[in-house]
Amino acid sequence: MDGKALARIVAVVFVAAAVTAGALETSRKEDKPLGERLHAPEASMPNPLRDGLRRCQDLGEAALRNDGCARLWAEQRDRFLGLDKPSGGSTTEPAVSQSLHEAR
What is the C-alpha separation between 95 and 47, in angstroms, rounded? Predict the structure, then answer.
């Protein structure tokens, strides 16, 4: 077997593998992209912790001196670390809302 024949056989095998891979890819059931699956439950359920953290973000540097924001950050940190008992108590929505109006 000479080199040309071997090269042709390798090329045919490569093309056959590429066509097979393409056919398998197109026959797959198309799932939703990962990004769409993550945002769907978030939009359907209100999250007071997330809303409070957004308000603290809007406060900017004034949030550093805000007790309500400090409690929200502590609760978020505890949730992230998987701790059972939040260190700062429960979320106090009125304190954050009140501080937002005072800052403006």
Answer: 17
Whole-number pLDDT of residue 44:
66
Q: What is the pLDDT of residue 96?
A: 45
| CA pair distance 96, 102, nearest whole angstrom | 10
Nearest CA among 49, 64, 56 for reference residue 96: 56
- Classified as helix, coil or strand, 28 is coil
Residues 6+ apart with CB under 8 A from 58: 100
pTM above 0.85, yes or no: no
Domain boundaries defined on the chain: 46-103
User: What is the tally of helices (H) and strands (E) in the chain?
Assistant: 5, 0
Residue 101: how many CA atoms within 13 Å on its side-chain side? 5
Q: Is the dihedral of CA 7, 9, 14, 16 positive or negative?
A: positive
Band (37; pLDDT cuts 50, 70, 90) = low
